[in-house]
Design a protein that fits this description.
Elements (H helix, E strand, L loop, with lengths): L7 H18 L6 H16 L5 H16 L6 H12 L10 H12 L4
Helix pairs in contact: 1-2, 2-5, 3-4
Length: 112
């Protein structure tokens, strides 16, 4: 299901699932809160009329390819670097820090 088009009541679970997938795919389980915040930020921007999901997906695909080819030993760090270089690192527009802390608590309880 596309998180952008999902009903609001399903977004939390979909963002958490996508964040878990990213952390697992990038072999970076310690960055679950970062990935969740990134996705929430992109979703918030989407709601404001700015769709950054395509650009974000392209950066993730590039990092995954580099990781598979052995170019990136720390895929999560490479993703952060590429996001900064592409201007995608400033997607955060959460309405409150409490919302992010709640997501962090739930994500930190998840194990693979």
């Amino acid at each position: 299901m596309d998180v952008r088009l999902s009903p609001r009541e399903l977004r939390r679970d979909l963002v958490e699932s996508a964040a878990r997938f990213l952390a697992h795919a990038l072999a970076d389980p310690g960055s679950l809160p970062f990935h969740a915040a990134l996705l929430w930020g992109a979703l918030c921007r989407y709601d404001q009329g700015e769709d950054r999901f395509q650009a974000l997906a392209q950066e993730v695909e590039r990092v995954l390819a580099d990781h598979e080819e052995g170019f990136a030993r720390r895929a999560g760090a490479l993703l952060v670097s590429r996001l900064r270089g592409s201007g995608l690192s400033n997607l955060n527009c959460l309405s409150s820090p409490e919302k992010l802390r709640g997501v962090e608590r739930r994500l930190l309880e998840i194990t693979f």
